[in-house]
Amino acid sequence: MGTQNPSAPSRAQSAPAADPTRPRHHGGGVIHENTRHTTRFVVIGNHLAQHPELSLLAIGLSCHIQSLPTGASADIKTLTARFKEGPTRIAAALRELEAHGYLRRERHRTETGRIVTRTVSCNQPRPHREPADRPQHPPRPSRPAAAPRRARPAAERHPEQTAPPHTRGTGPRKALPAVPQPSRTAPTLLQQAIDILAGLRRHDPRLLLSATDTAHLAPGVAAWLERDVASTAVRHALTTDLPDAPLRRPAALLAHRLTAQLPPPPPFRAPVGPPPPRYEVRNCDGCDRGFRAPETEDRCRECRTVGAPA
Predict the structure, then answer these.
(1) More confident site: 134 or 209
(2) What pTM was computed for the model?
């Protein structure tokens, strides 16, 4: 009973103090194995790679766009063909990058009248700013309080005062640009032009036109058809190389294309006369050979020549 275990420590030993300058590892976490790049690399800032609000798809898409060479295509169609994500997710990621200043999409008009979209990739976030040339209106001077006015009945109020708030102050809609006019107004030609315009939405849903816009553009399409342009060629000219950005007024864009890309008139062709008459074969009364001639002739040419008086 009085024997003690000599190998047992007299008191518990405390753990050694941890070095505050060394990171604490518990067996997990990230361990970097870095190799210095000398070619084919792009510098990505931590403000993008560790952005607290951007989605993983937006961060990866921004890294891919920053690695592209100048002039490479970065539209939704090209990115959809490159990656497995669909156009809806890629378009949403591009909008995220635009909202946080990593991407800008600018529309430019070329010398030929074609509208192209340029994608500007920013390796530093650029917040959205209002244009500096916007006029600043001075504050209006305060007016003295006026005496309360008697409310008029609803029937005596001005129509603008009774209109809903979202319709107040909206001016008339800007008129569409003029389109070429055909030299003749054939109903069948105008109907063919209307059918072409109504079918454009099958190629691009953004080209869904109203009845008013279709009636305005139909003479311009008829002017193309009048110049021996096939329907497929007209449809191709109106639907090819459209901008990736949303179309605010698709009818205005189509009116510009119908005017700017109007082909020249076809070359002049002399009118073709009626074909020569073709008579039935009949037998000659002189030599009984077959020949073609009107019913007034009963002899062939040789018999008429031999029987002619000297």
Answers:
(1) 209
(2) 0.37
